[in-house]
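Appendix B, Record 12. Input sequence as logged:
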Amino acid sequence: MSGRMLDVELVEPDGPGPGDAPPPTVSPGHPWLRRNARRLAVAGVAVSVALVATQAVVDARERTRLAELAAIPGVLAPVEGGLDVRWRGGVAAQQVLQGGTVVDGTLVGVAGTAPGSLELWGLDAATGQRRWTTSVDLGTPLMTADGGAPEAWTTCAPLDALVACVAQQSGTAGANPDMTVWVLDPADGRLLRTATLPGESGLTFSHGDVVSAVPVLLDGTTAAAPDAGTVRWAVTAVDGRTGDTSWTYTTPPVDAVGREDTTAYDSSTRSASLDARDDRVLLIVDHHAWELGADGTLHRTVLIDDTSWVELTRAGGLVQSTYDGRGGRSAILRDDGTWVRTASVPLWLPVDDGSAHGLVFCAEQSEGGISRIEARDGRTGTRVWDVRVRAMTALLLDDRLFVGTADGLRALDATTGRTVWSADLSRSVDEITTDGRSLVVRGLGLSAEGYALSDGHALWRTDLLAQVSASHAWSGEQLVVSSRLPRLYVQLPDGSVAVLG
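Logged structural output:
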């Protein structure tokens, strides 16, 4: 010890001393906490406000995302923990469901209410309540070969804020009967325009226009007779609301192929196919395909053979598919006009949200279904990835390819092909859809199941037979995944329907 004295400041303890129990009703407080209590309270309020604001932003973004998904064909209305019967309808409602379309909450379709009689129906998509009815007539009603009333294949499609419905008669022999097109306002069923087109015409809808292709003589304007040997095809886009012509295009002369087979529907004077995607329109007549812009400008012409057809791809290009004795294969058209050939064919996606932009997805077929899925650059045809998988169906959402497989579900990164997750269900999944928050799968028997998009874990299962039928034994009820109505529905043996939600 040096003997030096040290200055020591005694501080009385704030709380009880050693061994003493704290007062039962008083919480011990730290001096720093007491000195900064006001500041901490203000900071806590600020953090709470920030968390609430952040959550509000997240919620707003999710609402925007779901609203955008709701506009994509095939996406379901939100499913919350299972399915219930929302409404029921008879045979006419089933016809509306099968060929109808939903615009601004109204399901518009064509109902055959009596032999040879058609009506346009507008149903509340959420409740099934009929909002309006509009009677319509076929342009040229023809009796069937057995003398029965005319039958018609019908379908409806959105036309911006309007709806276009088409009726094509069937059951007749000889030349195709005329087709009828109705353009109407889905809010009240008011008919805006009615048009009659030759039965061999091509028809599609693009950016509010009704686009048709009809055969004409070499002068480009005179309608061609069914037995004409050389024709041109006049493509006309008409504004659905006003009836004004938006643009026209007329093909070069096309000679009929195989005049000894003039009754076949594949001769150049007998039928045309029209398709529209994004800002492009594709016309196919026999061995010829013309890709047009949304203003009618010719982009390119493609020649095809008897066993092939051409499609517009999701990546902005063209793909030619071929089915023959060797199976299916395809070729992607490069920007430079050359083809990249592959042993696969385009993969059909019942839901495609437009993510993984620039890629084209293809499937290689083998006995029993798809054995491999690949992604290719839509412009160059270069293979980006390929995955061996026994696939039954697939959909694309948020850069993920969700695949129904022979034994369950698998989620692939759509840009790399990497498996994100897989779920073994010990059974095949042949049909899936989504509401943007979960995968909805057709289950065993008459049932539906929900699985998480994030990792594939089971969310819910609904036994539908008990809901739609008084009988507890299956007797022909079918669960339908509709691309028309954003809901699943059950088709009953008597032709009626039970719409789920």
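The two ends are 88 Å apart (CA to CA).
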